[in-house]
Amino acid sequence: MPQAQTCCGQMHINTGYGKLALPLVEQHASAFAGYDAVVTPSASCAGSVRHQHAALAERAGRPGLASRSRDVATRTYELSEFLVDVLGIEDVGAYYPHRVTYHPTCHSLRLLKVGDAPLRLLRSVRGIDLVELPAATECCGFGGTFAVKNADTSTAMLTDKLRHILDTGADVCTAADSSCLMHIGGGLRHARAGVRVMHIAEILASEAA
């Protein structure tokens, strides 16, 4: 885990601050140069590295940085796709005896197209009661600064997502992005719903006592 790494710059890029993002893109390319694989527990960050970094560098007239960014991008993976698609592992030996529902985040679903990799990992967890989330592919309403700039719309979308989660009777809602889980978790706590959120990595790291 290279100590030189910083924010990947996605937030800056998405809100139009390309010049401020460029040093972060350069830092990212330097920090992760030379590694065989770069694995992140954030689908949105992986999406930014793979689909935004090189393009931003090109627009800034930095072909060298664009080339280095493309090189890192080809070796960058979201955690579940790395385990399932690269390593060929679905059963990591986890044990989690709780009722769980899975929210496929927009970036994992639409940008990275990780498919059912997260679900295949969850289905292999011993003791888990994995229940399907109604309207699972609908956005939770976070979208980074979207939730701030369009608060009313974001809240309406979150309300729909919370209703679907509660309909499952799950103890835990899991996903591959901490940002979405922060948004959903905040809504669940505010509603005192008694449902927790956990990143999929936490469930996969669980073992029998």
3D structure, described in words:
- The chain has 209 residues and is an alpha/beta fold.
- The chain folds into 2 domains: 10-74, no CATH class; 90-204, Rossmann fold (3-Layer(aba) Sandwich), CATH 3.40.50.
- It contains 12 helices and 6 strands.
- Helix 10 crosses helix 11 (178-190).
- The radius of gyration is 18 Å and the shape is globular.
- The mean pLDDT is 95.
| CATH architecture tag of the largest domain | 3-Layer(aba) Sandwich
Summed over residues and divided by their number, the pLDDT gives a mean of: 95
Indicate the CATH topology of the largest domain.
Answer: Rossmann fold
Q: What is the straight-line distance between the termini?
A: 28 Å
For the biggest β-sheet, the strand order reads 4-3-5-6
What is the C-level CATH assignment of the largest domain?
Alpha Beta
The helix content, as a percent range, equals 40-55%
Number of domains: 2
Shape: globular
Helix and strand content put the structural class at alpha/beta
Strand content: 5-15%
According to DSSP, the number of beta strands is 6
Order of helices and strands: HHEHHHEHEHHEHHEHEH
Computed CA radius of gyration, to the nearest angstrom: 18 Å
Number of helices: 12
Oligomer: single chain
Q: What summary fits the major beta sheet? A: 4 strands, parallel
Low-confidence stretches: none
